[in-house]
Amino acid sequence: MTLTARIRRAFGTHWYAWTMVAPVVLVIGVIIGIPLVRGVYLSLTDANEANVERSIGMNHLPATYHFTGLDNYRAVLTDGVFWDRLGWTVVWTVGCVSLTFLTALALANLLNRRMRGRTFYRLALILPWAIPAFVSVFTWRMLYNEKNGILNKLLAGGGLDAVPWLNDPTWAKLSVIAVNVWLGVPFMLVALLGGLQSIPGELYEAAEMDGAGAWQRFRHITVPGLRAVSGTVILLSTIWTFNMFPVIFLLTRGGPGDATEILVTYAYRLSFVDSPRNFSASATWGMVILAVLALVAVGYRRALRKQGEVW
Predict the structure, then answer these.
(1) pTM above the 0.70 mark?
(2) Are 254 and 248 a contacting pair, CB within 8 Å?
């Protein structure tokens, strides 16, 4: 069957569903498509604050930037700054996603058991998800304050020296990872808890009757039962963490120096902080980030397909 025939068959069979989703697809397409096309266009030019179309008082200055082809991409990929930022972004993403998944998995297993106050614990652990990210980040920033923060006051009470949570490169990296894990655990916890509750209890009972220990039941029943859910939440968490602008920017602004600067915060800096603002370079970084995430998603999906989990 040809591709055209498949499309016609899909529309013919599910025409009502396509009609219902068409308005949403159209709106999302406009919201995402127009900025995306504009970004691709700017990445192929030398547009910056000095040569874009603008008005100064009563004077209207036309755009004077030029088409430069792939020069911006060549400049980014041959610049050591990009590879430094990419390296830290990968470490940041892998560290956050790994810690978030393991923490959420442990908590989900605990909350899946019958225990007193289970509803309260579930609500308490989901609470960080309900708080706006910027509120949470500013709260953590106060906790991390080197002179007046609660964390250092607790350390001082124990006779320990204050820790430069946000002023030392290593501590700053650990601090932003901790905050992002705290923000990310609730979503992954809910997803994994739902996955655990979908696993038939009879499987555990049968395994226990056969003499399987707790680790064997976890390895041979829980892990396979959560494979589909885990694949989805890990991919989503990877994409979100890779682009997690609020935590980095609001907590450290990429500092100290540029120690915690990830790709998206650097792209923002090029377009909104540096002077003159380099719109073409910022757009190029955005397109490169999109390409990296697309490659990660495709590779991850192929890995799932080899394991027999396609979604």
Answers:
(1) yes
(2) yes
